[in-house]
Amino acid sequence: MSNYTIKGETGEWEVVIGLEVHAQVTSNAKLFSGAATAFGAEPNTQVSLVDAAMPGMLPVPNRECIRQAVRTGMAIDAQINKWSRFDRKNYFYADLPQGYQISQLYHPLVGEGSLTIEADEKAGIAEAKRIGIERIHVEQDAGKLMHDQHPTMSYVDLNRSGVALMEIVSKPDMRSPAEAGAYVRKLRAILRYVGSCDGNMEEGSMRADVNVSVRKPGDAFGTRTETKNVNSVRFVMAVIEGEAKRQVALIESGGTVVQETRLYDPDRNETRSMRSKEDAHDYRYFPDPDLLPLELDDAFLDECRASLPELPDAKRARYIGEGISAYNADVLTAEVEAARWFDALLEAGAKPVAAANWVTSELFGALNRLGKDISESPVSPAQAAELLGLVADGTISGSIAKQVFEKMLESGDGAAAIVDRDGLKQTSDTGAIEAEIAKVLSANADKVAQYKGGKEALFGFFVGQTMKAMQGKANPQVVNELLKKALG
Amino acid sequence: MTDLTNLTVAQIRDGHRAGDFSAVEVAEAFNANVAGAKALNAFIVETPEHALAAAKQADADRAAGTLKPLSGVPIGMKDLFATNGVQTTAASHMLEGFVPRYESTVSQKLWDAGAGMLGKLNLDQFAMGSSNETSYFGNVISPWRRKDGGPNLKEGAALAPGGSSGGSSAAIAARLCPAATGTDTGGSIRQPAAFTGISGIKPTYGRCSRWGIVAFASSLDQAGPMARDVRDCAIMLQNMAGFDAKDATSLDLPVPDWEAALSGDLKGKKVGIPREYRLDGIDPDIDAMWDAGIAMLKDAGAEVVEISLPHTKYALPAYYIIAPAEASSNLARYDGVRYGLRDLPQGAGLQDMYAATRAEGFGPEVKRRIMIGTYVLSAGFYDAYYTQAQKVRALISRDFTAAFETCDVILAPTAPSAAFGLGEKTADPLAMYLNDVFAVPASLAGLPAMSVPAALNREELPLGLQIIGKAFDEQGVLNAGLAIEERASFTARAEKWW
């Protein structure tokens, strides 16, 4: 249970959240035409006769888009409807050439499923929670209006017109902005693992309609508002917080929440009313007579299932089973590219726990510094495995490994070659180490006295000094043992 | 030399093949007839150069020994089919001046088969109408004229050629083209064929691709040929039909050689006579023609059985819910944004532009159907109208399925009357809609159905008999049509007055 509440004058209010996420299906062609879908093309260069709704043009379903939606449904353990149908949602707008959007109201492709968000104490999510998903249906995206091209007219770009979207509708199962944020991140991760959506929220590949209502704990659901087209996790959370507070203040001052569509203004961090239920469109949904019902056979479904990769939850469980901390497992599985890189590292022979620690601290730190993401990492999983292997077999120490990694990043050379060339092999030569220890202790007689007087924390200081004197090449375990002996 | 424009498609094809005349001679003869028949207003655009170019190609192909199935045959194209580089209007102001850069699948198939185009034929606006009076480009006038048939009937009055394929029917009846394309949503091939004494077949839904045909009601629209006789319909249809991956409702079936299998011998066949099609108060000439048709099919060897299609009386109301519902959505694309008419009043916003453009671009009948369709799909009315109509549609289909357990084809009148006078029914849309009463059930069920000329009424106007067949059994329909054609000996033709 979330303990997130809005504190009003009349007591605590619970927030109820449902999300409709629109995810652009990764495919080369649009949902019902052969036109291309690449982002960022010149306006109106990816428009077929069908997308422009020329007279007599007809939609033909794109098999790959259907396949991706089915695979997504399978990834959230949802019921796949072998019989589904397309409906027309009728309304006029300049970015909607047909005068209707082909969607699925009555018989969606994917039925009920769910995903699990992990516990996150810092965010106030005490334990893992299952969030229900009502349905996934596929539909066409609209084009885009450009209002800044001409002083008195708007321009229309139809490149997005007809691009396939999945609308993923959650149940009203979330109770805090943090839960909603975790849901969107988890959903995004699943989509990216499956490869059905690139999850790029900045480019609009993924956006959410945020449904929010408030109630006193134990009461029935309150009236909800829907804030449209929110395009980042941060904004989703901000919308929920702001909208919940607005509703509480409204109710407590004697008003009532009206069911309405709202728009989010990120610059002012506030939502404003777009239209109320009274002037909502009557979309006159009816089955699209240009299309036959979609019937999926077992062979198609089998192929969809067989093509699914290991998904985030399964991967996370496997990592934890290999001794990796839950925190590191979360970090490693959050992005599919990182998880794939890490799996390649394990496959190259690295030990899971050490590898996880190294990737989450050393590698991620270096990439962060370099402003690169993992797919552009200058060091390959095989090269990293070689480096970690040298640490594991005692050839170099952890601190030397950091130096070697820096040199790898700079030169692109292999770890073993760098260690050989620069003479960085760790030594367990007790004679050499004891000689340096003796020098360190005599130069720091005052600290030796303090240590012996009970200030045991100084032990680390002596280790550090010895390692420094050995230029980091001493085996730390040997240093520890010899120091203990020397300090009595 | 015989007048080449009196020849049928088969005669032109065979005569050209045999070297009796050149394709250019044929094209020139029809071009001349088209040019001389402006009074009929059958064409919106004339394309004599297209017909001539195809004819020259046909003559070259003959010399090279590479003749195609329709080499040397010029035809008319209903102006609902998109033709690359040639204005395509659906007889609307909305699309006046619209020149597509694509060719409909059906017209492309016909050109690939060697046919040439004489022009784009007039029709009811967006194929909505039964008299061709809703065309923005003016009504077509039937070449037929009434003889005095009684006190209420004005002799010689201008008659409707039927609709919506009224340009096609008038042009064929007047020998402006030997054959033409039509489309049939609720009788738009069959009723005009009956009104003008020619033949026309609407095949099984899905036989002809709808790609590139301006949509009226997608679940009902079906292209088909119109011609002077059954054989020509078979020839045309087998060059129009075929699977098209660009139309999701296209039938993935091979196209039979319907012409080769034509036979008017109906021995062993059963013909169903639906008792619900006997309407009270119907023109006695219609019933008499129907009875004569029954006798002809018996003579051809068929056994005649009475059948029942119990939901027939609900077909017309269901049709006039479903077709307008689909039309209201299909015609939403004509909004002035991308092509066609745009009316942008000074200082107007987007909504004003929509309103002005659609008020200006659509005629009254189109607006009426958009309003009906919008209404029946509205929240609160959807179940009472649209859902209910779909249930009726299913029941009508079931009626036919049950009937076809006891018969092979069904015989009925095509229309409840002969051609009516222009202007006679325009004031009463319901009276106009009633014209489709016999045609609509087969459309709702997606079944093949054709009209063949069977008799003249007392005003000496043609009447048509309708044959409805099982899904995919165009052959059965054509054969029954042929049996009637062989016995009706319908040779009457409109006397030239234009």
UniProtKB/TrEMBL annotation, chain A:
Q: Name one GO molecular function term.
A: ATP binding
Q: Which Pfam families does the UniProt record give?
A: GatB_N, GatB_Yqey
Gene3D superfamilies in UniProt? 1.10.10.410, GatB domain, N-terminal subdomain (1.10.150.380)
Q: Which residues form a coiled coil?
A: none
| Sequence ranges assigned to domain Asn/Gln amidotransferase in this UniProt record | 340-487
Task: Extract the InterPro entries matched here.
Answer: Asn/Gln-tRNA_amidoTrfase_suB/E, Asn/Gln-tRNA_Trfase_suB/E_cat, Asn/Gln_amidotransferase, Asn/Gln_tRNA_amidoTrase-B-like, GatB, GatB_C_1, GatB_Yqey_C_2, Gln-tRNA_amidoTrfase_suB_CS
| Annotated EC | 6.3.5.-
Q: Which GO terms are recorded in the biological process aspect for this UniProt protein? A: glutaminyl-tRNAGln biosynthesis via transamidation; translation
Task: Recite the UniProt keywords alphabetically.
Answer: ATP-binding, Ligase, Nucleotide-binding, Protein biosynthesis, Transferase
Enzyme class per UniProt: ligase
Q: What does this protein do?
A: Allows the formation of correctly charged Asn-tRNA(Asn) or Gln-tRNA(Gln) through the transamidation of misacylated Asp-tRNA(Asn) or Glu-tRNA(Gln) in organisms which lack either or both of asparaginyl-tRNA or glutaminyl-tRNA synthetases. The reaction takes place in the presence of glutamine and ATP through an activated phospho-Asp-tRNA(Asn) or phospho-Glu-tRNA(Gln).
Question: How does this polypeptide assemble, per the annotation?
Answer: Heterotrimer of A, B and C subunits.
Q: What is this protein called?
A: Aspartyl/glutamyl-tRNA(Asn/Gln) amidotransferase subunit B
Give the gene name: gatB
UniProtKB/TrEMBL annotation, chain B:
Q: Name one GO cellular component term.
A: glutamyl-tRNA(Gln) amidotransferase complex
The GO biological-process annotations, alphabetized, read as: translation
SUPFAM superfamilies in alphabetical order: Amidase signature (AS) enzymes (SSF75304)
Q: Which reaction does it catalyse?
A: L-glutamyl-tRNA(Gln) + L-glutamine + ATP + H2O = L-glutaminyl-tRNA(Gln) + L-glutamate + ADP + phosphate + H(+)
Q: What is its EC number?
A: 6.3.5.7
Q: Would the keyword Acyltransferase be found if you checked this record's keyword annotation?
A: no
Q: Which domain of life is it from?
A: Bacteria
Stretches assigned to the Amidase domain: 26-478
Looking up Pfam families in the UniProt record yields: Amidase
One GO term in the molecular function aspect is: ATP binding
Q: Which UniProt keywords apply?
A: ATP-binding, Ligase, Nucleotide-binding, Protein biosynthesis, Transferase
Cite the active-site annotation. Answer: 78 (charge relay system), 164 (charge relay system), 188 (acyl-ester intermediate)
Describe the family membership recorded for this protein in Swiss-Prot or TrEMBL: Belongs to the amidase family. GatA subfamily.
Note the subunit structure.
Heterotrimer of A, B and C subunits.
Purpose of the protein: Allows the formation of correctly charged Gln-tRNA(Gln) through the transamidation of misacylated Glu-tRNA(Gln) in organisms which lack glutaminyl-tRNA synthetase. The reaction takes place in the presence of glutamine and ATP through an activated gamma-phospho-Glu-tRNA(Gln).
In terms of NCBIfam families, this protein maps to: gatA
Q: What is this protein called?
A: Glutamyl-tRNA(Gln) amidotransferase subunit A
**Origin species:** Sphingopyxis panaciterrulae
